[in-house]
């Protein structure tokens, strides 16, 4: 995918809340870290909302079909939906998000002639800004605001 990031990461995984479009990003050194990152995400999201995750939609990659993830979801009562291969329409929000992430990385890294190992910082910045920017589907509310029901401060930007 990329060169190693500043923190020696090679991959990332995102989780998107369907309702608010808020995105969580986790940088990974190996793809088999997805399960642990999902547990971190679940804890954070359920703690913030005091609601439980009911459904997860994944593609059919190995990191999403591991026995431990399947067992974990079953135990937690989380329905797993696997999308049909090459059917991007089923996972449209994630596919669109990945495209905007890639555009954000290209804009920050290539247009500004920054070293490629800064892709991790560029992707985190992209998600941070997107979570605090108005979204058309949310009637110009930011995903962070839709998720937390609190208007995020952007004074520091």
What does this protein look like?
- By secondary structure, the chain is an alpha+beta fold.
- The chain has five helices and four strands, in the order ββαβαβααα.
- It has helices spanning 34-49, 67-76, 92-109, 119-131, 143-148, and strands spanning 11-16, 23-28, 55-58, 79-82.
- Helix 2 links the parallel strand 3 and strand 4.
- Helix 3 crosses helix 4.
- The chain is globular and about 45 Å long.
What descriptive keywords fit this protein?
two-stranded parallel sheet; two-stranded antiparallel ribbon
Helices and strands, with pairings:
Layout: E1 11-16, E2 23-28, H1 34-49, E3 55-58, H2 67-76, E4 79-82, H3 92-109, H4 119-131, H5 143-148
Parallel strand pairs: 3-4
Antiparallel strand pairs: 1-2
Helix pairs in contact: 3-4
Main β-sheet, in a few words?
2 strands, antiparallel
- Counting DSSP E segments of at least 2 residues, the number of strands comes to 4
Write down the overall mean pLDDT: 87
Helical run tally: 5
Fraction in beta strands = 5-15%
Cα end-to-end separation: 29 Å
Poorly predicted ranges (pLDDT <50, ≥5 residues)? none
Radius of gyration equals 16 Å
**Tertiary shape:** globular
* Helical content (DSSP H or I, runs of 4+): 40-55%
Could you state the order of secondary-structure elements as H and E? Answer: EEHEHEHHH
Biggest sheet: strands side by side, in what order? 1-2
Classification by helices and strands: alpha+beta
């Amino acid at each position: 995918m990329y060169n190693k990031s500043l923190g020696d990461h090679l991959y990332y995984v995102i989780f998107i809340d369907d309702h608010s479009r808020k995105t969580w990003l986790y940088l990974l050194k190996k793809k088999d870290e997805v399960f642990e990152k999902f547990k971190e995400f679940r804890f954070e999201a359920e703690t913030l909302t005091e609601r439980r995750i009911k459904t997860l939609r994944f593609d059919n990659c190995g990191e999403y079909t591991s026995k431990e993830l399947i067992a974990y979801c079953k135990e937690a009562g989380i329905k797993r939906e696997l999308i049909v291969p090459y059917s991007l329409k089923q996972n449209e929000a994630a596919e669109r998000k990945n495209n905007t992430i890639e555009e954000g990385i290209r804009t920050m890294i290539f247009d500004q002639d920054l070293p490629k190992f800064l892709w991790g910082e560029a992707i985190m910045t992209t998600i941070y800004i997107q979570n605090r920017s108005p979204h058309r589907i949310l009637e110009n509310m930011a995903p962070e605001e839709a998720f937390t029901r609190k208007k995020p401060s952007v004074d520091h930007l």
